[in-house]
Amino acid sequence: MNATPRWLTAEQKAAWDSFIRMQEKLIGRLARHVQADSGMSAADYIVLAKLTEAGGRMRFMDLAKLVEWEKSRMSHQVGRMAKRGLVAKEECPDDGRGAFIVATPAGHKAIEDAAPVHVEHVRRLFVEALTQDELDTLARISNRVVAHLEMQPD
Amino acid sequence: MNATPRWLTAEQKAAWDSFIRMQEKLIGRLARHVQADSGMSAADYIVLAKLTEAGGRMRFMDLAKLVEWEKSRMSHQVGRMAKRGLVAKEECPDDGRGAFIVATPAGHKAIEDAAPVHVEHVRRLFVEALTQDELDTLARISNRVVAHLEMQPD
DNA sequence: CCACTCTAGTTGACACATCAACTTTCTGCC
DNA sequence: GGCAGAAAGTTGATGTGTCAACTAGAGTGG
């Protein structure tokens, strides 16, 4: 209970505001590009990308852990993607509860078509905005924040 | 049409991946905190924060521009917030199409209660992970990316 | 073999975001 | 004045994310 809350300094607030603004604009723009170019959402893209990178067939939970999503989110997402024919669910013989998620041929084709275009957008909108030094610095800062997050309670 | 797409270099991809990962974890965690601490979504928070900062009464479109949202998003959001008593809509006398959005007393109280807690989370999870130098660097990098984005087509 | 607990995954309700289509009012121009 | 077009907002459809509750099979100790 502190009656006079400690606000951020001007520099801290500036950094926070700039970061938030950049992040929203950049992510939003890329999401719109993916959608427009390939008809996939950013969620479709990342799931399909990670799944095919890993061989196109994974246990549900392994996939969820790989993209760091909770199972509910993944379940809904996979359900939608299955309905659209990008992936299929298969029963798991050794574990009656389990499921394999498999990229369909259409799924493979979708990600193969989408990936180069997406990378081009990442390059154009993000990579080319910065020098390699700045990219390295940003990576270092990001990793530091993640490490810090993982040390903090909850 | 390039048959051999130019992928990112390892360093570029590392920077991109680290940034995305950090951003998702950090934003997600803060959103969950706002929700848990105050019962407001991150969207509620930002709208209410900007609105009260600006005096608690704004034209709909000015508010939308201030938070850089499209009008549809703002309309839905304001509708939900009005239903929950955080803001109210008022007719605009000089412009028959227009509307004022006003923070209700409950809205003012909600943001006043939520803001210090939220700032504390930003400090704990983000500011304290980094030195002031790193914060400055991140701000500079962010501003550079935004400037770059604003120069790019679409 | 039985009970207890854990893990895998689903489901339903609800809040949120986006897109496109729509209504109403204003403004500029003839 | 009158009309074309732009601006202010709304609306509905659809996809997405979160939470909590749920089912069902697997593992473990007695």
From TrEMBL, chains A, B:
Source organism per UniProt: Micromonospora radicis
Gene Ontology molecular function: any one: DNA-binding transcription factor activity
Superkingdom, taxonomy of origin: Bacteria
Domain HTH marR-type: 1-147
Gene3D superfamilies with a match to the protein in the record: Winged helix-like DNA-binding domain superfamily/Winged helix DNA-binding domain
A GO BP entry: response to stress
InterPro entries: HTH_MarR-typ (IPR000835), MarR/SlyA-like (IPR039422), WH-like_DNA-bd_sf (IPR036388), WH_DNA-bd_sf (IPR036390)
Lineage, uppermost ranks: Bacteria, Bacillati, Actinomycetota, Actinomycetes, Micromonosporales
PANTHER family: MARR FAMILY REGULATORY PROTEIN, TRANSCRIPTIONAL REGULATOR, MARR FAMILY
Name by which UniProt lists this protein: MarR family transcriptional regulator
